[in-house]
Structures
1.
Amino acid sequence: MAVGTSPVVETNTGLPTPVQAEAHRRRRPYREWLASYAFLIPAFIVIGGFTFVAMVAAVFISLFKYDGFTLEWAGLNNYAKALVNADFHKALLNVVYYMVVVVTCQTILALSMALVLDRIMVGRGVFRTIYYLPAITSSVVMGLIFSWLFSPGGWVGGLLGIVIPGAREFGFLLHPETALPAIMTTTIWSTAASFMIVFVAGLQDIPAHIYEAAKIDGAVGWRSLWNITIPLLRPTIFLVVVLGTIGTLQVFDQVYVMTNGGPLKSTLTPVFLIYTSGFRDFSFGLGSAEAFILFAIIFTFTLIQRRFIDTTVEY
Amino acid sequence: MRSMRLGLALAVMSAVLLAACGGSSTSSGGAASGTIRFSGWTSTPAEDQLLKDELAAFKVKFPNINVTYEPVPQDFRTKLKAQLASGTEPDAFYVELGDAAGFMQKHVLLDLRSEMAKTGTNASDFSGQVLGAFKQGDAIYGVPKDSNTLALFYNKDMFTAAGVATPTKDWTWQDLTDAAKKLTKPGQWGLITNADSARWAPFVYQNGGQVLNSGNTKSMLLDPATVEATKYYLSFKQNGSGTYSGALGAGIGWPGDAFAKGKAAMVMEGGWLIPFMKDYPNIHWSATELPKGKQRGNLVFTVGYSISAKSKNPDAAWVLLNYLTSPDNQKTVLHSGFALPTRTALASDPYFADHPAESAIFAANAYAKPFSWGINSGKVADAISAALERVLLGKQSVDDSLKQADKEVTDALAS
């Protein structure tokens, strides 16, 4: 193209002209740019194919009555159906109860474990590993182990049986009142460990000089915890609470392994309901609509939390 | 463990031998040839091996037909539906009873009548109701791989200890109630009654009741005969002579566990309990047909072999299915102890004479109804099981619980 050929380039003086130097400088970033895209491609294909395309397809499917064979236009009927479904209401109530208890307990427990670890001088690595073990155990394995612990004649009943007569033969997962709390316990046990690591990292970010200054001012022990550690950990606490909320609202595996949503739907959760709508009843449209309603709810919760937890910290 | 391996080896050997020498009565494959794909889910290693041996024997007998076996270890139903939707399904595959109605409605299965005519196979060659769930009008969309009904399994030692005469097929509901009471003592229950529509339904049929109307379009749960049968089924838990398996503690996952671990004198189960009990040689058991109510009633559980409506080689696919469901092959399977036959030709097989449980299960084929309530089977079964659970947990009366289930079933049928 004639427009692109500049007369300046043609005057060859042996030294790089400003234009050539500029072009040279640009070429290298361009190459790096290519290389970084090349590295991104595998992840892009996997995430694009299995997440993005699936998400777009789900939007589309949620507007149809789809059983895997025939597509039938349904408009917003699936959403309307999901919103008036008594099972969906029950699932939402269950999961909010579950979220409030689990997020509160796991955050407090994780922070406590991190604070203890932060103070231990001897064998810190050993304790950290022991505390972290539940986090790397598969949730299915955890679910199975805890179903045994909670079953009639299991260890939990056995321990309680020492104080409460008859508790030994009590099946925690068989009664609507105790099944969900039993699953909560299982979850807290495993997730507190992974959030503990986040808190440990957060604690290390707090500069030592602040504690030293506080010490000179006479703030030690609980006062230092309340006035320095916790305020300065706000971004970490926010992260843990938000991740915890998102995770608990999407609970599925423990329910699938331990109770299948029973007894009497007392452990039915939205994701479990989405799974049954899609893969047992083969109502993919309804399942997709339920998934988007859940997405809207999680999105709202996260926005509200952002508003109420101030995450700006200045050291 | 060693005895199991030995048994397996014998089963394999007998399968090969029988397949090799007993070929005469199977109809020939005619001109069918080519490659076909065949898919099903995997079972226990021993049962998978049996199928592989059957396929190997088929290859010897029909060298012109190449079978590509595609076993699916998990979520077979989901995979099959995806394959059917995308047009990549195998030529021949398993169809679960609960899916049959939906598949027939979508016209994805081949009507087998013309293929059956080619090999001279008749609908009447299959016993009782086993074809029922795969039929629509006169059209036949699947042939049953094997079949099961429920039998009353009982612990002989417990009956002797309690001084109760062992059950016979002529027992009435009253006999069952009386025996269950006498067989109950601390740590031992007379009968296991789980919140399971597949254990409750036989009593409904025995009482002349219905679950849905004959067209599967209307709930019949509030029919007086159905309500009465439900009250009877739940009476064992209520009078303390029965319980549900989940209440029995760690390691009791299903009624079979309760029976095998000596916690229950009687359970209602199918042929799947028989190989399971081999691991519990200390339990001396036998089985007979379920008791009679106003009439006989039972359920047929079966899995069908079907051919895709789009199969390019239905002739070869049928030759394979016809071979697998042939009396000769079913005889091999029967004698290996894994599954019960669906062919009337095997009704007088000597194996039944000294195997009372198998005999009771096979006999019930004559009057049992398929465990299927049409295209909404899953939701109907769920609503009923939940209703039974509410009563077992003492949350609702039978009448209130059935009213709620009736509403749920009515809603499911309307959607």
2.
Amino acid sequence: MTSHFLHMLVYSTLVSAFFALLLRNGKREQLRLGAVLWLSMVGGALVLAWLMFPFPR
Amino acid sequence: MPDDAASTGKTAAAIALGWVVPGLGHVVLGRLRQGLLFAAIIWGAFGLGLAYDGRLALRDHRQPLLTTLQVIANLGVGPADVAARLAVYGEPAYSMTRGAGAREDPHRAEIFRARERTGGANYGTAYLWTAGLMNLLLLFDVWDIARGRRPLP
């Protein structure tokens, strides 16, 4: 697997699952925090990438 | 101390076991589901880290603070880190130099740099260090559970 995007998805999944399990009790709360963290990481990275797109390397 | 707090001996044992085998500290304290899920996450990250030639950090006297922190992050997963170093370096190497000398060991340095040059090494390093740091965080959680500060819902 050499895709940056896939690594980002895998990494975000591992980290959000970990913190959801660590910081919340109960499946419902864990799923909610996990989803918020995952969307924040993936969405934040995509927004940042989009903002940086016009700038030359 | 809360009524459901574990004894000092059991607390120490749970923390030690949690470091030796990620997730086992929670299992010892009766949180089987949590322990298994934590184990799957940490072993998954550690396995991906090794598969992508992540950096098994070596302490370097030219950057002592940074490289020491990297070694600590690696060591978070417990003896699995030693086993990984045995497989990669052929010895449990934790320093770029051998013994008290200041010159870097050419064998270790060559392996270290060859792994860094592979395509996925940066990803692998992120996975390895994250696995170690997550397990170190888990040890604090084990402490809190053992002290009765994390009741089940």
